[in-house]
Amino acid sequence: MITVQADSFRLAEVFTIARGSRTEARVLRVTVERGGVTGQGECVPYARYGESLDSVTAEIEGLSQDITRAALQDALEPGAARNALDCALWDLEAKQAGLRVWDLAGLPEPGPAITAYTLSLDTPEKMEASAARHAHRPLLKIKLGTPDDMPRLEAVRRGAPGAKIIVDANEGWSAEVYADLAPHLTRLGVALVEQPLPAGQDDMLAEIARPVPVCADESCHDRASLPGLKGKYDMVNIKLDKTGGLTEALALKQAALADGYRIMIGCMVGTSLAMAPATLLAQGADYTDLDGPLLLAEDRDPPLRFDEAGVYPPEPALWG
């Protein structure tokens, strides 16, 4: 039996990106029960990709109750619906076999991975204060994406002078804004920039200097995205809700590496259940951004473990 449940988790504070603000994480938990064994997965429907809680629920409920993980790859397009069910089926298979998911996937046992901590878009003063509170963290990710981002970037660097910084523009810049900011990104020690230009309007990235590595986020969903990224991006951000689950995410990571891209593992704002499968992908990645649970005021039980070494693989009671 496949069941879908909508859940809401309060955020620790308002989270803002260039597209808007939120105070809660609204997610879908999918469970698959077969022969007395239950697997679970979670997705975060994303309006940017035309998804809603209702539309994703309908996609999943329209499937055969006995669908296999292999059949699922053709039954649904990449996206949140396929992700939650794919991950639930991985969890089910592991529990049925009495193994961990990484054993089923032929992967080494994973260890902790340093994860970015995201500072949401705000006034320069508030972003500086937030950066100072989190200056002890080794990697900070800044949400930008407006024509007036230079003061914000300077403010964060003042607040956290020793942290490594990555920037996510969420498609919010024009080619002109990016070109103006690029020299300052280098000066301020920014390590990478995610999706500076809108997906589908990013051809200029092949024609202008990229002094800081540029990572494709909204422009990269699954392996079919890779040909369109050539010459424009240096890295790809792999997110389970974009690939449509761990099955395609593992294949995308392998294909991207073979094509010469560096790897970032990212997330939507979800719970530890949504992040758990991505801890497998984080092994060996250049950057990991699985801080969703750190942004929440409440989480699944048991949650993922986070400490100075990073985010750890899940306990079996959570996933995998």
Describe this structure in words.
Helix content is 30%, strand content 23%. It has helices at residues 53-61, 69-75, 80-97, 101-104, 124-133, 150-159, 175-187, 240-243, 246-258, 272-275, 278-281, and strands spanning 2-17, 20-34, 37-43, 117-119, 139-143, 164-168, 190-194, 214-216, 235-238, 262-265, 287-288, 306-307, 310-311. The strands form 3 sheets. The protein has an 8-stranded parallel β-sheet. Strands 1-2-3 form a 3-stranded antiparallel β-sheet. Helix 5 links the parallel strand 4 (117-119) and strand 5. Helix 1 (53-61) crosses helix 3 and helix 5 runs parallel beside helix 6.
Radius of gyration over all CA atoms, rounded? 19 Å
State the low-pLDDT regions, or none: none
**How far do the termini sit from each other?**
19 Å
- Secondary-structure element order, as H and E? EEEHHHHEHEHEHEEEHHEHHEEE
Short description:
This protein has eleven helices and 13 strands.
Give me the secondary-structure topology.
Layout: E1 2-17, E2 20-34, E3 37-43, H1 53-61, H2 69-75, H3 80-97, H4 101-104, E4 117-119, H5 124-133, E5 139-143, H6 150-159, E6 164-168, H7 175-187, E7 190-194, E8 214-216, E9 235-238, H8 240-243, H9 246-258, E10 262-265, H10 272-275, H11 278-281, E11 287-288, E12 306-307, E13 310-311
Parallel strand pairs: 4-5, 5-6, 6-7, 7-8, 8-9, 9-10, 10-11
Antiparallel strand pairs: 1-2, 2-3, 12-13
